[in-house]
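Can't attach files on this board, so I'm pasting raw text. These are the components:
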Amino acid sequence: MGDEAKSIARGLQKRDPDLLDRLIEQYQYRLFRYLVYVTGNKERAEDFFQETWIRVLERGHQYDGRSKFEAWLFAIARHLVIDWQRSKKPQSLDSLTDPEQEHPLQLADEKDPSPLHQVLSQETEENVQASLQRIPAIYREVLVLRFQEELQIEEMAGVLSVPLSTVKSRLYRGLEALRGALQGGAAS
Amino acid sequence: MSEKIHDRALQLIAQARVEGIPEADSTWLRAHLEECEFCTGHVQQTDRALRSLRSASIQLPQGLASRTQFRVRLRAQQLREREPKRRAMWLACAVSWAFGIASAPYVWRLFQWFGERTGVPKLVWELGFGLWWTIPALFLVVVVLMEKVGQGSESDWMRQSR
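---
Top answer:
Structure tokens for the assembled complex are below.
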């Protein structure tokens, strides 16, 4: 990994407040967007956003600079969301994260009609907003990581803590779901 | 055109966007797309879907970064304030262990003497000696557990205040 990641790792070891300020500014949009897509709720995403940065401060020494900082950041955010989801509905982590289960990761309430609408900007096509809501969160998440964040599949496997094959299968299903949803079909 | 050819083309279309495809497959797909309207339509739909996804934007809440920076700085200050206490605790433990190692033979003799004088079974005073050795570790465990409980209630409080 580049010098940038190494210097971030060194700064986090020292809990450098200026570095953290800069990182919060730099990654605010990407992290918030990821959290909105995963939780489907702006207020909740905001809570997780702040909690994620507190965690970055506390666990910064665990980041070694060998992977991309954003991949580590998203992994922290994701774990926070899963922990919260687990405490809300006691069930096994596997059933929350395995898409082949009957009830895959549904971090956002799929019946709630509007949260994504509230945060996706007005200029965005209406049907994109509606389509994204029709896609299960577990697929929406991989689509965001791959096509918006442009993470490599290996990096995604690290963020999601799943094998490469699982990432790929979720991506294929997600892509199909997105395409179908935009066509107006019952993709999910 | 057979169903299998279309299936292969559709699979390659998705694969090209998810993980990339080898040059040979890419050439084959291009040739197929030139003569297949159905698969060309599929490519267009897929690319349109991805374009829409990429162009979908999110509005950031006002002051999100500054609020977060404030909270992070506050937490950093709390951690810094706790640091000297932690260091002192570890130092006390280290000194206690060093002293324990240095004095172990004498303490062992003291326990032995006490055991013989009071007629306590050997196993009991040996256990007593072992317990005496673990006191610094037990103390440390208690302090760390207390800190963890403190941290838990602190984050609960922070969550409620938001």
